[in-house]
Write a structure and sequence with these properties.
By secondary structure, the chain is mainly alpha-helical. 62% of the residues lie in helices and 0% in strands. The longest helix is centred in the C-terminal third of the chain and has 17 residues, at 70-86.
């Protein structure tokens, strides 16, 4: 993860000289920005219909459960997409996302 990379580059003189300080992604906390990010992810998926999972309440729940961690959010959307595809659906439903949210271990904000 991010902390391990930071520790590695700070503690190894050669890596620090080569890569410098790592750029850390901030955790998602702004619903509008997260909506833009998730909409961009959804556009990459092969569903013919829009997925109704970008309302404020759903996004706040995603932030709460994932701690705003980008990797966890992407895995959440990917898992919900797999559920929708296996079910033969035309989009990711709120039920697909809710099922994946129950599988995610809550992440504590850093």
């Amino acid at each position: 993860g991010s902390n391990e990379v930071r520790n590695l580059t700070q503690n190894d003189q050669h890596l620090h000289q080569r890569f410098g300080a790592p750029y850390l992604l901030r955790r998602w906390s702004n619903v509008e920005l997260l909506r833009d990010f998730i909409c961009a992810l959804l556009r990459q998926l092969p569903f013919p219909e829009p997925s109704p999972i970008t309302d404020d309440n759903t996004l706040m729940e995603c932030i709460r459960v994932t701690g705003g961690n980008t990797d966890t959010i992407v895995k959440l959307i990917r898992g919900a997409a797999r559920r929708a595809m296996r079910a033969g659906c035309n989009c990711i439903s709120t039920e697909h996302l809710a099922a994946e949210l129950t599988r995610v271990s809550p992440v504590k904000a850093a």
